[in-house]
Amino acid sequence: MVTKNKSNNICSCGKNATIFLHYANRLLCETHFIEMFDKRVGRTIREFGMLKKGDKVAVGLSGGKDSCVLLHSLAQINMPIKLVAITIDEGIKGYRNNTLKTAKRECEKLGIEHVVYSFKETAGKTMDDIANQKNEIPCSYCGVIRRYMLNKAAKETGANKLATGHNVDDIAQTLLMNIMRNEPSRIWRNSDNENFVKRIKPLVRTPEREIAIYAMLKGIKLDRADCPYAHFAFRSHVRKLLNETEERYPGTKFKVVNSFFEMTNSNIMEQTIGKYGKKKNTGKMSKCKTCNQPGSEDMCMFCKMKKNIS
Ligand code: SF4
After folding, report:
1. If pLDDT is split at 50, 70 and 90, which confidence band does 173 have?
2. pLDDT at 266
3. Which neighbouring-strand residues pair with 20?
């Protein structure tokens, strides 16, 4: 598993190394890698004040590596919190049915309540139906409907926090995508609103590659199939671009994410919007007049899409 390594492949404890952290020039054995991983998740939770005693946390559990590892990390955290796992079944044949089995199995293993919500029941169509019906990139529909359903499901389970498995790679990709599409206001899209269950991302300081290794070391059996619609996504292109850059310039992904946090703290975005005086969506939320869920206009994106596909 050690890929680009130092000459002796030995962790500082003397054991054989399992992983080489390119960006930190460090070799770690299995035990020290898991220890480092868990500590970093704990530090991230404290850094952003993500959790407090008595929280009920809904974990968005797709059954992929990120969400399964997140579930395992939160299950072993030393804090009295309650967990419930939510899986959104988009209805993608040959893909979601397999990850659903993984989600169910991991919840049983950890003794965590698991609820499943389907696109078909909520939006009236499966993702496969939508992809067949619309000559548009399926992910645009999928993302909006899934976000809506996760928030609704988290509320219905009585959770006050909604944890998702977004990692360093996801955040860096999203930032670049928003900049490349000239949609900077989406970077700071505000979900800190009473109508949204508060979102937390405990893996925001963790790279995707390390999540995959952690999942393997923890014995989480994963289905490796990709979503059949993934190749349509702009994200796939940006992911490739970032991976190539990281390979040549280790630490790039961390730097992109850190830039985001620095800009957030220094309010550069607000200054930019102010400077150009554009009436862009700066994240203000109200309630959708159709479904009563949060939305930035009279009709939320979910209801618009639902209307569009019915
Ligand atoms: Fe949905 Fe696109 Fe992700 Fe597939 S790749 S699950 S269609 S967002």
Report:
1. very high
2. 66
3. 27
Q: Is residue 38 part of a domain?
A: no
Average pLDDT over residues 184-192: 68
Taking the C-alpha atoms of residue 156 and residue 145, their distance in angstroms, rounded to an integer, is 16
Q: Same structural domain for residues 24 and 152?
A: no
Residues 166 and 123 in one domain: yes
- pLDDT tier at 260, thresholds 50, 70, 90: confident
**130 CB under 6 A from ligand 1?**
no
Is 145's C-beta closer than 6 angstroms to any atom of ligand 1? no
Give the ranges where the chain is alpha helix by DSSP (H): 30-47, 65-75, 96-110, 119-123, 127-133, 138-156, 168-180, 208-217, 234-248, 252-266, 268-276, 301-309
> Distance between CA 108 and CA 85 in Å, rounded?
11
Report the residue among 62, 90, 128 best suited for mutation to probe ligand 1: largest number of ligand atoms under 8 A from its CB: 90
Rounded distance between C-alpha atoms, residue 213 and residue 65, angstroms: 10
Reported residue count of the chain is: 310
Average pLDDT, the chain: 88
- Report residue 134's pLDDT band, with 50, 70 and 90 as the boundaries: confident
**Range of lowest pLDDT (37-51, 124-138, 268-282):** 268-282
Identify whether 230 is part of a domain. Answer: yes
pLDDT-derived band at 287 (thresholds 50, 70, 90) equals confident
Q: Take atom 5 of ligand 1 and give the residue whose Cα is closest.
A: 230
- Which amino acid makes up residue 117? Y
CATH value at residue 107: 3.40.50.620
Ligand 1 binding pocket includes 139 (Cβ within 6 Å): yes
What pLDDT is stored for residue 248 in this prediction?
Answer: 95
Residues 18 and 97 in one domain: no
Domain presence at residue 13: yes
